[in-house]
């Protein structure tokens, strides 16, 4: 697996700002955001709706250009879509006229490269979709479609996986299953994951670090480390540390709507 030289974080966001030029004037979506993400960390980003989370993630993917600042992958500035970066969105975005196998094959066709069939079969097995390759998206549940989109992203063996509210449309039970699945996949093949969510529970369960953004213009307001060992059991969610952390993050987000000038603070939850 590709990792950056020891001196570089895997992803380095430096003073990233984004101004959208709109008909009603300039809109500052991101204001000098700086975040270092180390290789194979799982980092969640939470914050009020419209604070610039998607803007930041798309900038990390190279699909959006920043107005100023830069984002580096393994020390090199990202200037466009990168083969080492996979993306998963809230909607599975499977092509409805293609079956599951053909959907997974699609990015390889675009790049004129051969898929690693054994790896894809392993992933399908891992997410419980072995034997579903001939099914069309309409024949799959929402959770299955989202699992398929994760397989499609991982089939390219990215070293960074960017996920934008990937389970936001799923019921809470399926969502918990998907959270465990992400952890299992990560344990199987460690990958740097940046995960946007509106669920503080999901962020805490999944992440090594939770970054809280302030209301627009988005800035990094606070950052928390979550030090529970992996694999994590759902029981950690019933502990006092997690309860306190959840409340602290909720207050940050509510506070962030009115106050955008908070001093950065780090806090830690003791390992289980
Ligand atoms: N293409 C665009 N053109 C103009 N404004 C945009 C564009 N994309 C996003 N915005 C604005 O930038 C701000 C940040 O949007 P963004 O989608 O990044 O927020 P978000 O934190 O992902 O929100 P949510 O939690 O609701 O998904 C919002 O005010 C949004 O209206
Ligand atoms: Mg968004």
Give a structural overview:
This protein is an alpha/beta fold. Helices cover 32% and strands 25% of the residues. The chain is built from 7 helices and 11 strands. The chain has helices at 53-61, 100-111, 117-126, 142-154, 172-188, 200-206, 240-258; strands at residues 11-22, 25-37, 42-46, 68-73, 76-77, 85-88, 160-164, 192-196, 209-213, 220-226, 266-269. Helix 2 (100-111) runs parallel beside helix 4. The longest helix has 19 residues, at 240-258. Mean pLDDT is 90; it is low at 258-266 and 268-272. It binds adenosine-5'-triphosphate and magnesium ion.
Brief sketch in words of this structure:
With 272 residues, the protein is of the alpha/beta class.
Poorly predicted runs: 258-266, 268-272
Q: Specify the overall morphology.
A: globular
Number of domains: 2
Secondary structure class reads alpha/beta
- How much helix is in the residues? 25-40%
Biggest sheet overview: 7 strands, mixed
Count of discrete alpha- or pi-helical segments spanning 4 or more residues: 7
Q: Please, what is the average pLDDT?
A: 90
Bound molecules: adenosine-5'-triphosphate, magnesium ion
- The CATH topology of the largest domain corresponds to Rossmann fold
CATH superfamily of the largest domain: P-loop containing nucleotide triphosphate hydrolases
Q: What strand order characterises the main sheet?
A: 6-7-8-3-9-10-11
CATH architecture field of the largest domain: 3-Layer(aba) Sandwich
Strand content: 25-35%
Order of helices and strands: EEEHEEEHHHEHEHEEHE
How many beta-strand segments? 11
GO molecular function: ATP binding; ATP hydrolysis activity
Pfam families: ABC_tran
Family: Belongs to the ABC transporter superfamily.
Organism: Labrys okinawensis
